[in-house]
Amino acid sequence: MTILLTHAEQLLTLRDALGSRDARRGAQMRDLGIIQDGAVLISDGKIAAVGATDEVAGQLPDGRADVEEIDCHGKVVLPGFVDSHTHPVFTAPRLVDFEKRIAGASYEEIADAGGGIRASLSGVREASATDLAAHVAGALQQMAAQGTTTVEAKSGYGLSLESEIKSLEAIQRASKQWNGTVVPTLLGAHVVPPEYHDNPDEYVRLICEDIIPKVAARKLAEYVDVFCERGAFNPERTELVFRAAAQHKLGVRAHVCQLTTADLGPLMVFHPASLDHMDFVRDDDLPLLASSDTVATLLPAANYFLGLSAFPPARKLIDAGVAVALATDYNPGTAPTPSMPFVLSLACTQMKMLPAEAITAATYNGACALRLQHRKGSLEPGKDADIAIFEASDYRELAYWFGVNRCSGRVLKGAGPQRQVSHPPDSGD
Ligand code: NIG
Ligand code: FE
């Protein structure tokens, strides 16, 4: 199957002029590699050619009968978003927590009173793998509808050997029903479940000696994540989990500095693919981060939904040369949104990222946060054909409009175009 996208108003290639595969930092984040009147040729799920429409159309073999041509006049075409941090394995929204927060309780107060992450446990423990997979599949569809083509998906609401494995199996099943790409992560170390309340070390031992080895043996996860935070896992326990992950050849990543500051040095020894949230990152840790390929993944939808006035310090991180990504953090407690465009809007309005920086953070740098930048995150020959098409004539519109879905088409590993009804054209300035 060959698809030819033509006449994109702006084609955002995100390619690096020198062909570097490093994460984009500082001023590099503002270069989207834009081609006006752009075209992409897709063959067998891969990108075959990228360039101006007249150049690419000229490369087509004779006889265009088997080529599906999509006219992208009035559209911005870009790499599908890489949502590198999501928690899709849950069964129900947490509406009681939501109302308690409106009444003034904080996230930690709600968690201490038995709400929070622990409130999602029973639903997941009682659900069948089939039902969980259906929930995950539904979330993946919603994400794709908003332009996401790669999703990192964590377990973390089972918190027992059986339920964590069931959660990862649900991710695996759902990913087989979806044309996009899913990167599964074990988040057994999300919080200490109630039955280990008095003996958290025993729970850490279960994760390290039982859950991680079994998950690794069955290849159910590529990464191990830890919620390294007050009220969850301290740095020493985080290191134990990271060590077990490394022994079983799984990559590591962490939720860190969401509510309190932490010393990142001991975690950086394990070469994490990303450190996520980072609201309270210490200035002292910036040089270490900037000199590493660990990505700082910022999750402003969580700040928005928790009603916080402070947002992750994107400017400080970018200006220090840290590789920054953006993700939804899709989850029932702090970020019930599948929308990367909404995250772009928050990044620009609340964190003062430029639209171009936000798009780089949501595509190429998101791919780096999953160590997938050789396949994902930019439109270049040989890469997976993961593409989002937006009703817009200028890339800044992706972060400008909010509360409306302007993603009108997508290609997932060459499958597509899956189109929706177009919005009426807008004239903007
Ligand atoms: O990334 N902070 C830890 N994990 C999630 C929240 C999970 C929940 O409240 O259900 C987060 O914000
Ligand atoms: Fe999270």
Mean pLDDT: 95
> What would you call the structural class?
alpha/beta
Low-confidence stretches: 420-429
What is the gyration radius calculated from CA atoms?
21 Å
State the helical fraction.
Answer: 25-40%
Q: TL;DR?
A:
This protein is α/β, with parallel strands linked by helices and 429 residues long.
Task: Give a description of the structure.
By secondary structure, this protein is an alpha/beta fold. The chain is built from 16 helices and 16 strands. It has helices spanning 53-58, 95-102, 107-112, 121-126, 129-145, 161-176, 200-217, 235-247, 265-268, 286-290, 300-305, 314-319, 340-351, 355-362, 364-369, 397-400; strands at 2-12, 34-43, 46-52, 67-71, 75-79, 81-86, 148-154, 181-189, 223-228, 251-256, 274-277, 295-298, 324-326, 387-391, 407-412, 415-419. Strands 1, 2, 3, 4, 5, 14, 15 and 16 form an 8-stranded mixed beta sheet that branches. The protein has an 8-stranded parallel beta sheet with strand order 6-7-8-9-10-11-12-13. A hairpin with a 2-residue loop joins strand 15 and strand 16 (415-419). Helix 5 (129-145) packs across helix 6 and helix 13 (340-351) packs across helix 14. The protein is globular, with a radius of gyration of 21 Å. 54% of the residues are buried. Mean pLDDT is 95; it is low at 420-429. The protein binds N-(iminomethyl)-L-glutamic acid (NIG) and fe (iii) ion (FE). Residues 87, 116-117, 120, 227, 255, 258, 302, 329, 331-334 line the site of N-(iminomethyl)-L-glutamic acid.
